[in-house]
Amino acid sequence: MKTIGKVGLGIAVLAVCALSIHAVQDAPTDENFEKKLVNDYNVYALPLPEKMDFAGEPVPLNNPDIRERMDRELLVNTYWQSNGLLLFKRANKYFPQIEPLLKKYGLPDDFKYLAVAESGLEYTSSPAGASGIWHFMKGTGLEYGLEINDYVDERYNLEKATMVAAEYLKAAKNKFGSWTMAAAAYNAGSGGMNKQINRQKETSYYDLLLNDETSRYVFRILALKEIMTHPQQYGFNFREKDLYTNIPTFKVKVNTPVEDWAEWVKPYGINYKILKLHNPWLRDTFLKNSSGKEYFIEIPEKGYYN
């Protein structure tokens, strides 16, 4: 399970006279919004929060190394503005789906930001082959019972993938003793974390010297949590109508082969593209289902695409 990539961002201008980013103070009316869009572009140093935590576990911000690493991720993720706005837009669509699943499967709510760090809340596949919103490698998905073949890839099924992520993370928490270490193990693997614990005789994420990707990983999650919890404080301004919304669906049971999904969906008034948008775990234009396994297909309510 790998993150979507390392981000390098050059900050060309630093306003040393400011201690905080300039956020919109006026009510976000259309008039004020348009005025700020044109006139309000500044780059400032960011004050670190006095306290931060991940899943209730405190971040040792009194440690100068930890402060610098946290500062880096706040700057990188604040000033990657286009990506940040897209994350807010997608979060409005996907967090209402992810949050109850985290609760259902026993994970702290903060793990929704791990999903953001992994995939940017897109059904993507990384260069290494980690796929879905939770970015599982194929071997991990198969190990935890997901169906992955030419016709179905349940890494792209949000509920099933969230269930597997919960199983993995809860096992890692039991093994390493904290949710923070469990999050790090999600990136580096349990074997990789064990190796460094044994070599360095340390058990805290914040006291371990790790590879660059894993050493930044939890801080990136923390930065995303901080920014997405306080958008205007970090210069992100949007209206409700700017955000993406989830399309209501109903489920149709399928327990037979399907020769052609494009034909199968016609009675529901949608096309193959729309079927795939709501069922990204379907990987081909047909389904071989000789075993009679039950699948539940999400069909959008009428009136949203026409």
TrEMBL record:
Signal sequence, start to end: 1-23
Gene3D superfamilies for this protein: 1.10.530.10
Highest taxon, organism lineage: Bacteria
Domain Transglycosylase SLT residue range list: 103-206
Keywords noted in UniProt: Signal
Keyword Signal set for record: yes
InterPro entries for the chain: Lysozyme-like_dom_sf, Transglycosylase_SLT_dom_1
Family under the similarity heading: Belongs to the transglycosylase Slt family.
Protein name: Murein transglycosylase
Organism whose genome encodes this protein: Aequorivita soesokkakensis
